[in-house]
Amino acid sequence: MTIADSAVPAASPAPLAPADPRRQHLRERKRRLTRNIRQGALALALIVAAGAAAYALRPRPVPVDLASVVQGPLNVVVEESGVTRVKDRYEVSAPVTGRLSRLALEVGDAVKEGDALAEIAPALSPLLDDRTRAEAEARLGAASSALDQARAQVSRAQTALELANQDLSRARQLANSGALAAQALEQAEFAVRMRTDEQSSATFNAKVASEEVRMARVALSGAREHGGADRHLDVLSPVAGRVLRVQQKSAGVVQAGARLVEIGDPTALEIVVDLLTTDAVHVLPGTEAVIEGWGGELPLRGRVRRVEPSAFTRPSALGVDEQRVNVIVSLTDPAEKWTALGDGYRVEVRFVLWQAANVRKAPQGAVFRYRDRWAVYRVADGVAHLSAVTVGHRGETEVEILAGLEAGASVAVQPGDRVKDGARVEAR
Known about the structure:
Elements: H1 3-7, H2 21-57, E1 62-68, E2 70-86, E3 89-93, E4 98-100, E5 110-111, E6 116-121, H3 130-176, H4 182-225, E7 233-236, E8 241-246, E9 252-254, E10 259-264, E11 269-276, H5 277-280, E12 288-292, E13 300-307, E14 312-315, E15 321-331, E16 346-363, E17 368-370, E18 373-380, E19 383-394, E20 398-403, E21 410-413, E22 425-427
Parallel strand pairs: 1-22
Antiparallel strand pairs: 1-21, 2-11, 2-16, 3-10, 4-6, 4-9, 5-8, 6-7, 8-10, 11-15, 12-13, 12-16, 13-15, 14-15, 16-20, 17-18, 18-19, 18-21, 19-20
Helix pairs in contact: 3-4
């Protein structure tokens, strides 16, 4: 130790000032707050992550098409295409073998009953042999028999028309008194129209038979008279109408029976529809028909006049043979509404098999077979419930619901395999 060190004593450290309790409390409080904020943020992040994972892993609702059960009209129909045709067509043929002059007629020309359609002159070969005479006599006998038969048909058709008019008169009296349904009155009116058409057709057939007798007599008379080359036979029109087709336009030698001209009344049309036999069994004479797709703005009305008893085989568009049958439809609307229609026009026909003005109905795609019954998936609060239903008539796109669903209920349309009973669904 040096003298200096021994002479000056060492300084002692200064004492620490006492800590401020208030400041320490604030610092401690701040540390606790920071720790709590960190813990809360971590907990919130964990909650958000868990919620996001649960939302991502939760089962999603199945998207479906929804429809409502409603009250309204329902029609059960069979729809098929058809063609128009003239009711009574007459193919005028050559009564004898000879030289045919060129026809001046064109398709669409109007002709009257008794107008000369063509001229047939004797052919260069002899026409006075025994065979020709015998054929002419046989043709005259057959034509006379056909005329007697046609006159009997006219008498029968006239009697049926008178009876139909009497039934219509009685039906109108009963309908006016309220004792007869309107449908029965319509059937009686339709029967009168059918009998009128039959009487008109029978009259035309009688005229054709009479003309065939006349031509047969002229042919036989010409053969007996041994006419010269300057003589000719006029082929007359059996009825009034229009020329539908000219089979033989140019001059030339024709054989007896050769088709020359086709005549008919284009204002007397009917519609021929070939239906599948499985559909035709539900169509009866008098069934209402709606004609659409004919080119006019409004549909036309008609009724089934006849369902032919014999079917035929026709290949479908896929090459599968189908059994079909012709259904004849008569137009009931006034002719002024369909004057633009002609022979051989294509139309779409819907046969109304059943109809009701107010039924409970649902889309057909919502109803399916479940075990041994019909069922639907009724949707309520986003949950699909399997519900058994009782169905009635089936229309084109809708089906009648007799029991199991109330009007206003929501159902799944074409639900698919993902929809089960109790599954959550949402509107697509």
